[in-house]
Amino acid sequence: MKKGYVLLLMSLVLTISLLAGCTTSSNEEDMSVVIYQNKVEIGEQLTAFAKQYEEATGNKIIVKTTGGDTPYQDSLKAEFQSDREPDIFVIEGMGGYNTWNSKIIEFTDDEWIDLTDLEFTVDGKVYGFPVSVEAWGLAYNKDLLDKAGVDPATLTSQDAYREAFEKIDSMKEELGIDSVVAMAAGPDMRWVTGLHNFNGYLSAGLPYGDRTVLDKLNNGEVDMQRLTEYADWVELLFEYADETVLITGNYDSQVGQFATGKSVFIHQGNWIDPWFVQNGVDFPMGFAPHASVKGEHNAIFIGAPSFYVINKDSKNIEAAKDFLNYMATSEEGHNYMVNEAKMVPAFNNVTLKPTTPLSANVTEWMAKENGSYTWLQNDMPDGFGMGTLGPIYESYAKGDLDKEGFIEQIAKAIEALK
Amino acid sequence: MKRQTKDKLVFWLFLSPALISFIIVVIVPFFMGIYYSMTDWQAVPGIPVNWVGLGNYRSMFSDIKFQYSLFRTFTFTLISVITINLVALIFAFLVTREIKFRNFFRAGFFIPNLIGGLVLGYIWQFIFKSVVPQIGGSLGIDFIENLLILANPDLTLIGLITAYTWQYAGYIMMIYVAALLNVPQELLEASEIDGANSWHKFKSITMPMIAQAFTITSFLTLVTSFKQYDIIVALTNGGPTDIFKGEVVNSTEMLAVHIYNVAFKYNNMAEGQARAVIFFLILSVVSIAQVYNNKKKEIEM
Amino acid sequence: MITKKRVSKLLLGLITVVLFLIVLFPFFIVIINSAKSSLEIITNPIALPARWGQLIDNIANIWTNPSINYASSVYASTIITVLSLLFISVFSAMAAWVLVRTKTKLSSFIFLIFISGLVIPFQVVMFPLVSLFRIIGNNLNIQLLRSYQGMIFAYIGFGAPLAVFMFHGFIKSIPYELEEAALIDGCSKPRIFFSIIMPILKPIFVTICILNAIWIWNDFLLPSLILGIGQPLQTIPLAISAFAGSFVKQWDLIMTAALMAAAPIIIGFLFGQKHIIKGMVSGSIK
To answer: According to the lineage, what is the superkingdom (chain A) (predicted)?
Structure first.
């Protein structure tokens, strides 16, 4: 008789304890600054830097990193649904700002603001701390280009590119390559096409910061002339790409093709540097100008991909600000950004130079007058680049759409944004 | 305490842990979901929720991507139900016969079921992308070497079904094994004495048992195929693209994936929720009709 | 006649072996590629590895990988799976028993509610569930998101319908006389349940636990919503997704990670294989 009740009581207690188990999140977390970030590759380094900072100042920073198949914005939303909101989180441009603008503070007299040109601003107000500088374009294998007798400095227009591609293509066997360009447009790679490549339509050939084409797009207006020119560029890239990598390739196979010397060019950014370091690839390389539309070009796409923003409901706003300032102004911060996390810092007080090949090349492009085109791809509506445009590139790559079909579908997608 | 009150107490005490969890986790969110599907709910805390009536439902049915997803989900489910049951039945026959290492084979066929959909998806992605072309290359068959399985909508669907059958057939096999072992041996022996041939034995004794099991297995395969998510996300991520009614669509974005994408990737929670409600309605109708139909057949046999 | 029978037997045996090998082929692929470097995989994914020692290196790599955090993920998966199994089976058996033995309209109605849970797909409740958990967290100060208790609680809720349904069917076949005799002896009801009914339920317990173990250990979507990807508290599938889904898709490490994710449950299965297969076979048809 008793035994039964005891067991019953126990199971009930268990349910209650389960429900009431941990009623508040740990205090430690409340005292410290939680930074919720999206770069898996620097998670470790950032954590180590946070420790350094804690030793220097006594303020505790907890680094939470998310990555994976779920886009960061999804994870972030879920994170805000949970009980402990992060103090510092990341927005990736206008889209992120539109979702979160009611939750973030304006930076006013922080030291780092004067040290950069790449802070995130809306109507002249500063909201985001640039995490790093990144750049993409067509990276080339210098050895192979020399062998083919092509000077990357001459690649300043679509015509020059076409000529060079034809030439290289005719020397395939000699150079030992599978295709001229390593390009990827498959389901895993929609960020390359729908965001990065499409950004050429938005900003190539325009002065830095020019948003006219983007503003038109957001109003559902198409610049047909530009789109047609841009489609020629996409056609050129796809035509001289390896079919397997183009259609089903993932990041690894695309970078792998370039790294193993099976292609002369790759449509990627300087974030592929670690791949080379890990796999002992050391041929010289750099970025060629990007000729997304007609005309002469001498620039690549340079920008800050993401920004740290501070939660306005945070209990530790001052500590969070201090941490960001420390990163931008201290030697330890510079060392973390350049040598540990292998990033190109957005701050002009940094004297350390990146050692990896493409990042080093990016700093050269940054130093050039008019050497950069704006990043506008993150300022399109949510899901438009990867969700709506990405599949259109894939269909074009597979041949389900011809060039006219491609132009028509893109135009239709833009018009639907009205 | 009076006997009756005590009984009542025991009744609620025993019932409450399971019932309360179930109500909080399933029933309450279910009704919340139906409500949210008729609002502009965004799931961002602090943003008020406004009533929009059936607006989310109207935009769903005019969405070509949704129509296509619905169509592909039905195709996927239908073929999966057939292949999984067929393969499982073959396995079950083989491992209920008098062979050596019977349990060993049963375990072997069952093991893929232990692999989670996500991990399994990555494994098969690797097989389709790297292993198959390499095998083609080694055999010197150019066609296979150059076969981009995950670039063709139909081949990808077949690939998806292959991976899913690989995972699930072993489990369904177990149910068939149970059914086959339930066939009374005396009956088989008796009919053998009566001079019945194998086909006859199969038809009159084994078949009815299988039919009974089929009610369960077809229900299970139907429901789980219809809800498939993990494998798709890891294996194809919705791709490759296809053209449907002049629009570019994702060929393996089955409903479960579609719902998730609408809600999160396009940042449209309420519309995703409305699609989930329709998903529920379809699933209920289909599964109830299926069970009803099979039960009827089972009796007729 | 005899030779014909033998030939057909041999043939069937052969078919079985061939099918068996086909079914196990993906495992073979996983194992050989877990022992390669990423460059080796790109060159030839079906060759045997050049150096099996690479397997150890890859395992060490996954073991120390911060986004997988293997040891703590396995620990979390184990805690969540074991406790969920325990609560699902005990609570559902208790509920099923009183539902069978109380013959009122109310109990039939409650049973029907449980059954309705079998046709409610996860997708229709997943978004509101997260909201509800947050509301509970904010208003009652019970943390359900990002926590063990929330995860386990959700599994009890989702696991209950099938378990109640299965127990219900089984308990109906237990003769009531057994309990009646004990009642006359002066046994209390709870005592009857825990000392008489529970032991009889053992086979169905095993079946339910196996089914739920496979489900919970491998589940991805529910934990990705409740626990989140890339959190300190993560299960094995979440860890794998965080790792494999990032930009850097290195097949060698993904294969090793797959191997290590599947290893615990496969080892568990091989140990308990006899009971598990018996439990599956006996329980599945009921």
So the answer is: Bacteria
* Among the partner residues C153, C193, C249, nearest to A19 by beta-carbon distance: C153
* CB contacts, 8 Å: B15 with chain C: 94-95, 98-99, 110
* Residue-number span of the structural domain to which B211 is assigned: 57-300
Judge contact between A126 and A106, C-beta under 8 A: yes
Q: Which of B119, B165, B172, B280 would you mutate first to test chain C, the one with the most C CBs within 10 A? A: B119
CATH number for the domain spanning B160: value is 1.10.3720.10
Extract the runs of DSSP E, i.e. beta strands, from chain C. none
What is the DSSP track for B213-247? HHHHHHHHHHHHHHT--HHHHHHTTT-SEEEETTE
Inter-chain touch C241–A68, beta carbons under 8 Å: yes
Strand, coil or helix: B181: helix
- Give CA–CA dist A266/A287, Å, rounded: 9
Other beta carbons within 10 Å of B198: 9
Task: Report the gap between the CA of A291 and the closest CA in chain B (Å).
Answer: 27
Same domain, A187 and A333: no
Q: Which of residues 11-40 of A touch C (CB under 8 A)?
A: 11, 14-15, 18-25, 40
Task: Say how many CB pairs under 8 Å bridge B and C.
Answer: 266
pLDDT digits (tens, 9 = 90+) for B172-229: 999 899 888 877 777 777 777 777 677 777 777 788 888 888 888 998 899 899 999 9
* pLDDT < 70 stretches in chain B: 1, 45-46, 196, 298-301
Give me the residues paired with residue A137 across strands: A268
- Cα C203 to chain center, whole Å? 17
Enter the ipTM: 0.90
Rounded to whole angstroms, the Cα distance separating B202 from B221 reads 24
Q: Inter-chain contact B13–A12, Cβ cutoff 8 Å?
A: yes
Quick one: C43 exposed, middle or buried, by C-beta within 10 A (0-12, 13-18, 19+)?
exposed
Give the model confidence (pLDDT) of C169-185 as tens digits.
889 988 888 888 888 88
Which residues of B fall within a CB distance of 8 Å from C119?
Answer: 280, 283-284, 287-288
**Which candidate from C97, C129, C282 shows the least CB-CB separation from B14?**
C97
pLDDT tens, B206-219? 888 888 888 889 98
3-state secondary structure at position A374: coil
Host domain of residue A251? 135-303+370-415
Q: What's the number of domains chain B is made of?
A: 1
CA distance C176 to C196: 11
Q: Which one, of A270, A292, A288, lies nearest residue A226 by Cα?
A: A292
d(Cα A63, Cα A36) in Å, to the nearest integer?
6
Interface test with C, best of A23, A38, A40, A73 (most C CBs within 10 A): A40
- Whether the CB of C16 is below 8 Å from some CB of chain B: the reply is yes
Judgement on whether residues A341 and A283 belong to the same structural domain of the protein? no
Among A77, A247, A386, beta carbon nearest to B151: A247
Q: Dihedral (C-alpha) C98, C103, C108, C114: value to the nearest 10 degrees?
A: 10
pLDDT in tens, C98-110: 999 998 999 999 9
Burial letters for A134-161: b for 16+ Cβ neighbours within 10 Å, e otherwise? bbbbbbbbeebbeebebebeebbbbebb
Structural domain contains residue B35: no
* Whole-angstrom distance, CA of residue A416 vs CA of residue A218: 10
- Which residue of B3, B5, B10 is the best one to mutate when testing the C interface, meaning the one whose CB has the most C CBs within 10 A? B10
Nearest CB among A77, A253, A409 relative to B44 is that of: A77
Which of C200, C204, C79, C91 lies closest to C151 in space, CA to CA?
C79
If one counts the domains in chain A, the total is: 2
Q: Do C246 and A44 touch (CB under 8 A)?
A: no
Q: Which of C15, C20, C161 is nearest residue B22 as measured by Cβ atoms?
A: C161
Does a structural domain hold residue A18? no
